Each structure stands twice: as C-alpha cells, then as structure tokens.
Amino acid sequence: MLYLFPLVGFGLLGVQPWVNVSTLTRDATAVAGGKFYHGLISNLGVLLWCATASVSLFSAWLLKARGEQKTAVFAFYAGLLSLFILLDDLFMLHEEAFPNYIGIPESVATALYPCLILAFLFTFRKRLLASSFLVLVSSLGFLGLSMLVDVVAPNQTSELEYLLEDGFKFMGIVGWFLYFVHTSTVLVNQRIQEQAGLGSSKPVASGSPTPEVFTPNAPLALGIQK
C-alpha cells in the first residue's frame, strides 16, 4: 500500500498521450539541454521556499499535538502560503500555466500573491507584531522591489535588469525563510519549555530520573562535559 499511489501515478504517466514520459520524469535542465548551473539562484530560492513550508507545517503539527491550537493555525497558514508560492515559483504558474492553460491573465495571477500575503498579515497581525517582525518587513520590501522592477521593465533587455529583479527576489526569499524558521523554532521551544515546567512542578518519586528540559542551546551541549 505504501507505494500504491506512486505506482498508479507512473502508470498513468506511461499511458497518457500528450507529453513524452521522459519530458516529465527527467530534470528540466537535462530536457532543455542546459548546463548544471543554469537557474542556480532560482533553484536555491525554490529550496528555501520548500524549507520554509516544511518547517512551518511540521511546527504546526507539533504545536497542535501539544495543545497549542491557535499557534498551530498560524504556523499552518504560514506553511500553506509558503507552499503555494513555492509551487508557483517552481512551475511558473502565474507566468506560464495560468495565462496559457487556464485562461487567467498574468496580471490577475500576479496580483493574487500580494492579496494573499496581505490577508495573512492582517489575520495574524497581533502575533506578527509580537515577533521579529522587522525581518519579515524587510523580506516583503525586497519582494516588492522585485515586482516593481518587473512592472517597470517587463521585457528585460539588460543583465542589470535581471540582476535587480532576481537579486531583490532572492533577498526577499532569504528573509522569508529566516523569519518563519526562527519564529517556528521559538514557538515550538516555548511550548516545550512550558510543558516541561508544568511537569517539573509535580513531585518526583525517589530514584526516578530527572526530566530533561529542552533549551535552544541543547543541541550544542550534547556530549560536552564540564
């Protein structure tokens, strides 16, 4: 059962008549006949989107399992938003798929992302303001500058325009990654410490091992004896 869905999926890929199987299974650079470094910064950005989505969604699961429902909702929607942007960046949805295959104009699809981000900011404004919010603000600023360059020069004709648009975008992705990974770590750590504190208030039976309390520096202290 574990491999049933992948097997069915590959079976469907093998019988569909529209696209060669190799086009769907091989690396995009290999299909296009490009070099290994083609799309380097874009690929790094996709990895950071993926890391942000993974950490946020996993943190949401941990927080929900530990009874932090409201905090889990925040982490879940942060992960969901990052995942949506990841899929758009990876498959060029607003540039290629939406206009050419679904019929949604690129301008409309592009405007969707600021709307989603603004909705997220408004919904969780109190929690965001209580965190390292300036990092997220700087991230959104860089992403906004990238979109501005794209609007001012939609048909890039110089390497400088590419450098500005993609450079601002990558800086924004880095900031997004740093903010949500740090925030997720803080939220999970706080909940673990709270539960450890509650547990330590109970009487410990004689001879029972002392419960360990997780701290941010715990991984660094492993194996170090003073």
UniProtKB/TrEMBL annotation:
Keywords: Membrane, Transmembrane, Transmembrane helix
Region (Disordered): 199-226
Membrane-spanning parts: 41-62, 74-94, 100-121, 128-148, 168-188
Protein name: Oxidase
